[in-house]
Specification:
The complex is a heterodimer of chains A (320) and B (170). Chain A is of the alpha+beta class and 320 residues long. Chain A contains 3 helices and 12 strands. In chain A, the strands form 2 sheets. In chain A, strands 1-2-5-4-3-12 form a 6-stranded antiparallel barrel. Chain A has a 6-stranded antiparallel beta barrel with strand order 6-7-8-11-10-9. In chain A, strand 7 and strand 8 form a beta hairpin. The longest helix of chain A is centred in the first third of the chain and has 38 residues. By secondary structure, chain B is mostly helical. Helices cover 69% and strands 0% of the residues of chain B. The chains are: A alpha+beta (320), B mainly alpha (170). Chains A and B meet through helix 1, helix 2 and strand 1 of A and helix 1, helix 3, helix 4, helix 5 and helix 6 of B.
């Protein structure tokens, strides 16, 4: 029972364990992801990742069954919506085909690289973060496969996130919707640049540098230069916005990648030091790229410099 | 209590963490999964001596920390606190078993809230999550429902039993 007059053994132990936890926290933050904490993490993840892989594989049929049950409720509405969408997309495809040809010609003229030209490493998603607040995916490839910290990860829909830690056989990918992530983006339709910040399971926040520029619902946002190669689809604008007063324009966007249901991802063999896609027309008026990516806004986190060495297995067919 | 009980409890905690990160990656009604490890820690903390229960909570939290990318010690602190709260209230819970489900709800919600606050303090921007309230409430509801199966299971794994009107004994 609780003894107001004194501290019993369990309370003393609680205080001791809290102090120990806070010490661990401080040491780990000071070590910036290196040191004993990193060694322990690598060891534990190395031991548990095969088990996670086995459990994930074994439970896939059961989980798939549960997923399909939940899908039944929305299947009719989805069918109608998808039929309409197919018609729209068929028209868009025809238009895009000709645009793509023109873009390729221009790129060839300028000698630019494209994300599609990057080597990729295909990986399976093994596990998720330990809580709902961890916007993390554990993937089945690691340092031994050529993956390094900082490399972008995409799926068929677009940008998924980036690698934030690597063990020999696995890697942790922080999703683009994590609140500590922000991405330099460009509105594909207008070329206006800005920042896209994650808000967990809420819609992402788009902040455009030019407050006079309008964005429309459905506008696609693609990566500008920085942590990621240019031109990868990141999000779709949810609401049209035009700034009334203020220095920047804010609105919301949803990720183009299917973050809640990713099975396979492609890690792009790209680091910030890789040859980027920068266009300097000399006029200084229209920035083709965002000058500097702010990176994570969290003090205390500093990922080690990405490894840009070799890649072992490469390229199924990424479609960033 | 024997070392065997602790080993079994540790194994169940490891299994819970693995299920949390693999099975519940896909089974996520309303896009949220239960906080299974918290529930298992509550389950064992009902039966173990106070110090053992808290050390088990600390260990479970540390394991979660090692699998996460959040700073080491964050989950350890949260799980230790959850185990301590369970130890403090378990006498009353055994007197009125109907309080168990509300307690599991409160312990899960409180644990996740503590994690969110500490995470924000230590730079994880956890409370900036647009769905923070949902991520606190829904796992707590899931845990309250699952407690009807998981708590008897944890008691069974370590052979805990109870005679009416008495506390659980190993």
């Amino acid at each position: 029972m609780w003894r107001p007059g004194g501290i019993d053994r369990s309370t003393s132990l609680l205080i001791g364990l809290i102090v120990l936890s806070l010490t661990l926290l401080t040491v780990d933050l000071r070590a910036s992801g290196a040191g004993v904490g990193a060694t322990l993490r690598e060891g534990v993840q190395g031991v548990l990742s095969p088990v996670q892989r086995a459990v994930s594989t074994a439970t896939k049929p059961f989980a798939g069954f549960v997923e399909s049950l939940s899908d039944l409720f929305s299947v009719n509405a989805d069918n109608n919506r998808l039929r309409e969408r197919v018609l729209e997309l068929e028209q868009e495809v025809a238009q895009l085909q000709s645009l793509e040809n023109r873009v390729r010609e221009f790129e060839a003229l300028l000698g630019l690289a494209t994300p599609a030209g990057l080597d990729t490493i295909t990986a399976e998603v093994l596990a998720v973060g330990v809580s709902e607040f961890d916007h993390i995916r554990v993937i089945s490839k690691g340092r031994n496969d050529g993956i390094g910290v900082g490399m972008p990860v995409v799926d068929e829909g677009g940008l998924v996130g980036r690698v934030v830690s690597v063990t020999a056989t696995t890697a942790h990918v922080r999703l683009v919707v994590d609140p500590i992530e922000s991405v330099a983006v460009r509105v594909e339709r207008t070329g206006e640049t800005g920042w896209l910040s994650g808000r967990g399971s809420g819609p992402m926040v788009l902040e455009l540098l030019n407050s006079d520029a309008a964005v429309l619902a459905g506008d696609i946002l693609v990566t500008a230069d920085g942590k990621y190669p240019s031109g990868i689809a990141v999000a779709t604008v949810v609401r049209a916005a035009r700034s009334e007063v203020g220095f920047s324009l804010r609105t919301e966007a949803t990720p183009t990648a299917a973050l809640s249901r990713i099975d396979l991802v492609y890690v792009l063999v790209y680091t910030q030091d890789s040859p980027g896609i920068t266009v300097d027309d000399g006029s200084g008026r229209i920035p083709a790229v965002v000058p500097e990516d702010p990176g994570d806004r969290t003090s205390g986190e500093s990922d080690e410099e990405p490894v840009t060495t070799t890649t072992t297995s490469v390229s199924d067919d990424p479609t960033p | 209590m024997r070392a065997r009980h602790i080993l079994i409890a540790a194994a169940v905690v490891v299994v819970a963490v693995i299920l949390q990160t693999s099975l519940f990656a896909r089974i996520r009604p309303f896009d949220v999964a239960p906080a299974l490890t918290v529930l298992v820690v509550v389950g064992f903390a009902r039966h173990f001596p106070a110090e053992t229960a808290m050390l088990l909570g600390f260990g479970a939290g540390l394991l979660q920390d090692l699998l996460a990318v959040s700073p080491l010690g964050l989950w350890a602190l949260v799980m230790t606190t959850v185990a301590y709260a369970t130890v403090r209230f378990r006498g009353r819970l055994e007197e009125d078993f109907g309080l168990m489900t509300p307690f599991v709800f409160a312990a899960t919600f409180g644990g996740l809230f503590l994690f969110a606050v500490l995470g924000t303090i230590f730079g994880e921007k956890t409370l900036a999550d647009g769905g923070a309230v949902k991520k606190l409430l829904v796992p707590a509801i899931y845990n309250a429902v699952l407690s009807l199966a998981v708590l008897p299971f944890t008691a069974w794994t370590i052979g805990a039993s109870r005679r009416p009107g008495t506390e659980f004994r190993l």
